[in-house]
Structure prediction request, 1106 residues.
Amino acid sequence: MATQEVTMRIWRGDAKGGVFKEYHLSIGEGMVVLDVIHAIQATQANDLAVRWNCKAGKCGSCSAEVNGKPRLMCMTRMNLFEPGKTITVAPMKTFPLIRDLVTDVSFNFEKAKTIPHFRPKAKEADGTRRMFQEDIDRVQEFHKCIECFLCQNVCHVIRDHEDNKKHFAGPRFFVRLAALEMHPLDTNDRKQLIKEKAGLGYCNITKCCTEVCPENIHITDNSIIPLKERVVDEFYDPLFRLFRKISGKTAP
Amino acid sequence: MSDNSLAIEDKVTQRQDLWWLEPLLVVLALGGFVVYATWAGLQNAHYYAAPYLSPFYSPCLSANCAHLTLPLIGSWWNLSPAILILWIPAGFRVTCYYYRKAYYRSFLGSPPACAVRDIAKTYTGETRFPFVLQNIHRYFFYLATLVVIFLWWDAILAFRFPDGLGVGIGTLVLLGNAFLLSLYSFSCHSCRHLCGGSLNTFSKAPARYGIWRVVSRMNERHMLCAWISLIWVALADLYVRLLSMGVITDVRLF
Amino acid sequence: MAAEQKYESHEYDVIVIGAGGAGLRAAIEASAQGARTALVCKSLLGKAHTVMAEGGIAAALGNVYPEDNWKVHFRDTMRGGKLLNNWRMAQIHAQEAPARVLELEEWGALFDRTKEGLILQRDFGGHRYARLAHVGDRTGLEMIRTLQQHAVHKGIDVYMECNVQRLLKDGERICGAFGYWRESGKCVLFKCKAVVLATGGGGKAWKITSNSWEYTGDGITMALDAGADLIDVEMVQFHPTGMVWPPSVRGILVTEGVRGDGGTLTNSEGKRFMFNYIPEFFKAETAETEKEADAWYEDKKNRRTPDLLPRDEVARAINAEVKAGRGTSHGGVFLDIASRRPAEYIKRRLPSMYHQFRELADVDITKEAMEVGPTCHYFMGGVRVDADTTAATVPGLFAAGEVAAGLHGANRLGGNSLSDLVVFGRRAGLYAAEYAKGLKGSLTVDTAQVESIAQELLIPFNGKGGENPYTIHAELQDCMQNLVGIIRTEKELKQALDKLATFKQRLTKVSVEGNRQYNPGWHLALDLYSMLAVSEAVTLAAIERKESRGGHTRDDYPKTDPKFAKVNVVVRKSKGELRISQEPLPEMPEELKKLVEEQK
Ligand SMILES: Cc1cc2nc3c(=O)[nH]c(=O)nc-3n(C[C@H](O)[C@H](O)[C@H](O)COP(=O)(O)OP(=O)(O)OC[C@H]3O[C@@H](n4cnc5c(N)ncnc54)[C@H](O)[C@@H]3O)c2cc1C
Ligand code: SF4
Ligand code: SF4
Ligand code: FES
Ligand code: FES
Prediction:
């Protein structure tokens, strides 16, 4: 098997502080960054903290920043990097550090609690639920989210402005909100919440979330911007308001 | 094992690639366009070379126009007629979701690139004045649609030569211009929303779903349309300008 | 000082350990019944194995084939399990699965649709009709997210990254659970009336496995330690199609959906070898020629392709092909869908397989064949439970999902796990809540018991320069892979037992670096305790079952034995030692017997 020498620069430390430590080892064919971390764990640093589960890009546990770019370690092949160059692995920056590559992502779980739940309309007369593939294609894209929180991590609204965490849900939850709002069966109206509590207006559609999403969800184009348009319908568009008043309808 | 004491927090970014290249190019390209368009729009001359009207001056609305499209404004207006109209495409592009991304990143550095620290210390996004005004984008879309209609009209007029119907390079330039601006306008996110994006059950509105699908497909290339149409419209103006200044001459194809 | 004061402690009616499909469904139900409920899991919420499930969830909805109903599903499950299943569980499962799937839809799940706007169903091995409700090849994700969001909105308390180590008892009854926070390494005590185990299996003890670090058999071990019975633990499912190349991804699952959607297995000579491996038991319902097999994809009235025989059959066939020298250069066989289906179709139906192979193996599955081989996948065996109530043999202990045994018998059909989770997860929650409500008097936690567990957990910090837990784990994986793998012999199994004994010895001398805060070395050292216990139970049971059946293949007893058809191998712990016995299967009523025996 072809082996290769690599140098890894890995953040070691906890909330109190830390340093980048360098590790040298040889790697085998097809390895991903997570494999290398595991190899270091097994042979050089038993206590190197890292999260992972599926090793196949399905669970969204192994998020980190490799050479400064937010990525899943299990889907980042070592042959992506120039041989001989040191590879830097750091924890996600936006969330408080627990230890080494592990961060406290509870921010996201708290935000999840604030999202009004799915409330289906009545069933069809024959007792079934009829939905057609074209009705759900759009929402199924959002359901692909593996909650890796890389988008939350890269979003500058909270990455660089800690104080915005209070009133900004983040791209992951815009995806979630879009999935609920566009669900063909849902009857809950969350537009007020999207505008106020979830802080959609803080997003300046600079698309970093889309760039890092390992599931290739078009977060900005397909969920955030359509939500912004829906918010415009409701709050910023005088003609639509008038139209609603006259027609007595709630949605166009 | 060697230590390398470098707190992660202290760096603007850990990225090692050429992340600053893209914002730099955008600054140069957008900046260049704005300078040229402003200059050309204020010229008030050399915007018509029969049968071609520069798209910066179309529709031409004041009585003083070298080539009047619609006489909406009397001859009292003696500034450049481009001013009457240029605010529409300008507003459309300034509030365009794509251009917002482009200039927020490259001009305002918020953020300069992904995982690169914001330049500004505080940030309120599009929740406050002036950026909250971005929400009127759809009104610019309505207006821009009108302008696009006039641009097609100009393109049709560009077939009418003094000696009858014909096709010159300029005809193709204006046709291309109308076509590209249509692509850009109808791939707009607001357009996508109005066509069908606001619906939740597509199967109940098959026609709107069909339109939405087409617009969505175009929308995926909205950025591309934005750049090509931008460059083309500037070149179209330049072409007409150089013709009218006599620097070049039009080639008749038919 | 009482344990409640010394350690962080919480009190509930019902504690659900495990937040996969089974645990989430159990917690939702228990809380709906009014029980104060907490959910504990050792990863973050939503990262359990269930999230990785790909192909679909089996339920006789009859949307694609109206002929389908619970009876056919029941029959398929029993036959797939080589009749070792608990018939009552198989019956409940087949009857209730459709309602549970529709309930997921009520909670916001979006399955792929038929032309009529109903839930679309796909073909899977061993199911007579297209039966698996699915979402592309990420069904588990849809299911866990739906349940997770539902649970969150019900306000159920969730303890994430909290690793439960032992169950606590007051006399005969369960009275709590004790574990540690992964983040801080601090101990935590849960007092409760009932515990629902939903911790999944133990496949991480094998080297080539589709399982994650979580699958260390904790629940099985905790149950065993608490005095509960295990059954069928010799029945370990090797999924026929795991990735084989490159080495670092070996074992990662390739969904059966590839074959359900038209993919076929071929050997290095380009032959569809499965036609040579059709067992007597499935002869009547399996196609004999390629033409007949291909016709089946279009019309299910034809006999099905042998590529979709139950997993044990296919895994053994691949094993045999590779042994006979007809494997690929990396020791697998080819799984080809590229030459059989259009690229667009493949990308739409199998997006994550496409992605997985492109990213990890540089293989474009719309253009080339995949290389696949068997990978350790699923524990059919586990905690013995009552079919209706999911109660284990210890009062106050319930189990559902992969950790529980009985439904799948000797071999699980694809898609029957996800349905198992929601059917029996709900029942576990229901009956645990009922039990807790009915419980009179108060329970007390034995402080001395807690204290000794707490001491035990810290042993790996005591020494320096002792055994490296990663080394022991790697050796254990080699041992189980080579000696307790797909094909077993008495000699090798006995060797494995000896090795396991030395591993246990070595585990007492294990030492780890660093402190208690998020320390994976320490976590692994603790997980090894349960991995070794489960490995031992599997090996002992495998020695006991002197026949070949389903997931258990003995080279020295290659045939099924009618004597063993009537018994479960039971493992229980007494005085610190594992004991093995054979106990009769519950008797199936006549009318169900008839269903099972029906040919085609
Ligand atoms: C790659 C893959 C694909 C699959 N595809 C399919 C499919 O298509 N169809 C199908 O039906 N089945 C499929 N399966 C099988 C199925 O996914 C699993 O059997 C099922 O998800 C198990 O669910 P569960 O709820 O029992 O446990 P899991 O989902 O594994 O959850 C176990 C939970 O227990 C927790 N836990 C474990 N130990 C402890 C402890 N000591 N303390 C606290 N918490 C603990 C874990 O944190 C986790 O939350 C697949 C499995 C894999 C690996
Ligand atoms: S597009 Fe909006 S949500 Fe996404 S990263 Fe940028 S600011 Fe954040
Ligand atoms: S939207 Fe994409 S990047 Fe964000 S959490 Fe989900 S999968 Fe990750
Ligand atoms: S380990 Fe699951 S996504 Fe990387
Ligand atoms: S024009 Fe760009 S989004 Fe409307």
Residues 489 and 554 of chain C are 6 Å apart (CA to CA). Chain C is about 35% helix and 15% strand.
